[in-house]
């Protein structure tokens, strides 16, 4: 009879623990994963800012490419000049 009593205690402990973890998981999901409630206007403002940032980055990339082309041209001119002087 004592073995059955120990088995019941162990099973009740396991069942209680699993139930507790499930309850804590559901609570954590509801509390920690709350929607931010960002309004449509706020999302549009963020989207406009990101679009402006993308445009700026594209402009900088074009300017860097122009600088690189100028540097390559200058390097080629200097290399040609040094071969002509020899």
Task: Label this structure with key terms.
mainly alpha; 86 residues; 2 helices; elongated
Question: What does it look like?
Answer:
This protein has 86 residues and is mainly alpha-helical. The chain is 90% helix and 0% strand. The protein contains two helices and no strands. It has helices at 2-32, 40-85. The longest helix is centred in the last third of the chain and has 46 residues, at 40-85. It is elongated. The N and C termini lie far apart (108 Å).
Tally the helices: 2
The total beta strand count reads: 0
Shape: elongated
Q: Characterize the largest beta sheet: strand count, sense, and whether it forms a barrel.
A: none
| Oligomeric assembly | single chain
Main structural class: mainly alpha
Q: Name the poorly predicted regions.
A: none
- What is the mean pLDDT? 88
* Distance, first to last CA: 108 Å
How does the SSE layout of this entry go?
Elements: H1 2-32, H2 40-85
What's this, in brief?
With 86 residues, the chain is mainly α.
């Amino acid at each position: 009879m004592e073995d059955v009593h120990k088995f019941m205690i162990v099973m009740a402990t396991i069942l209680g623990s699993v139930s507790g973890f499930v309850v804590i998981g559901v609570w954590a999901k509801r509390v920690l994963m709350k929607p931010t409630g960002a309004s449509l206007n706020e999302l549009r403002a963020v989207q406009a800012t990101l679009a402006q940032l993308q445009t700026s980055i594209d402009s900088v990339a074009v300017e860097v490419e122009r600088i690189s082309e100028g540097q390559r041209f200058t390097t080629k001119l200097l290399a040609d000049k040094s071969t002509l002087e020899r």
